[in-house]
Write a structure and sequence with these properties.
Layout: H1 2-26, H2 37-61, H3 66-99, H4 105-110, H5 113-142, H6 147-181, H7 193-208, H8 219-248
Helix pairs in contact: 1-6, 2-8, 3-6, 3-7, 5-6, 7-8
């Protein structure tokens, strides 16, 4: 019982540390980020209404695979969103910079180091930790028969490797949400970029999972469930661009 409480306590401490580190990388205020409390509240309200609507639709009409399929779809989107951003983001950012006035393009390109650094953290930490653990395990197999070295490697994996893997899993969980929300710190390139990327991301994710997790019921319900999320996110993103332009003087071509 004491061992279980100790492991749970250490796991929670690792998760809290991983969350602070993820927020420090992806959610910390940057030099180009415009934080408007009204926009933030509207985004949270849209997310809450969307979740409630989805819950009501599935409660009334059901969905193939049941609630387990719904939760699985949610977790898939959580980790898929940053990967889609990494793949699609360069095309959107490239088009955004091309659309900007010629005299502003060198400045925008010079600021690409901020999202590139964020992507490096997001990919580098899990790849490095998993690679190190696999290297130790491979080394143990190569040195099979040398008991002392194998014991040292086993202890290293047990004492450092397992906590690192737990920390990395927690970091990926928290970092995936923050990276998708702040679009890998692309606001430091241009304050309007996260809104543009969010609108593109939600449509790409919807098309990538076309038909997955849609409620049963009439065709109108399926269409509403499929288009409701992307259309509402696009509307909020468009309104965010309007707020940036009218309240803060931020223009896509400015």
């Amino acid at each position: 019982m004491a061992l279980r409480h100790l492991l749970m306590g250490n796991g929670l401490s690792l998760a809290r540390h991983a969350r602070r580190h993820a927020n420090g990388i992806f959610a910390a205020p940057g030099p180009g980020r415009v934080i408007d409390p009204v926009v933030g509240r509207v985004q949270k309200a849209r997310a809450a209404v969307g979740a409630l609507t989805t819950f009501l639709l599935i409660s009334v009409y059901g969905v193939d695979g049941g609630w387990s399929a719904v939760f699985e779809d949610g977790f898939t989107k959580l980790f898929l969103a940053p990967l889609v951003l990494i793949l699609v983001g360069p095309l959107v950012i490239g088009g955004f910079i091309w659309y900007a006035p010629r005299q502003h393009r060198p400045v925008l390109r010079s600021r690409l180091r901020y999202p590139l650094r964020a992507i490096g953290w997001y990919l580098g930490i899990p790849i490095g930790v998993v690679g190190a653990v696999l290297l130790l395990l491979g080394l143990s197999k190569v040195l099979e028969g040398i008991f002392v070295i194998q014991a040292v490697i086993f202890l290293a994996v047990l004492i450092a490797g397992i906590p690192l893997l737990i920390w990395t899993a927690a970091f990926l969980f928290f970092a995936s949400g923050a990276a998708a929300r702040y679009a890998f710190n692309t606001a430091d390139v241009h304050a309007a970029l996260p809104a543009v990327l969010t609108a593109v991301l939600v449509w790409v994710l919807n098309l990538a999972q076309l038909g997955d997790g849609l409620p049963n019921g009439p065709v109108a319900v399926k269409i509403a469930a499929f288009l409701g999320g992307p259309l509402s996110v696009t509307a909020v993103s468009y309104w965010e661009l309007h707020v940036l332009r009218t309240r803060y003087g931020v223009r896509v071509r400015g």
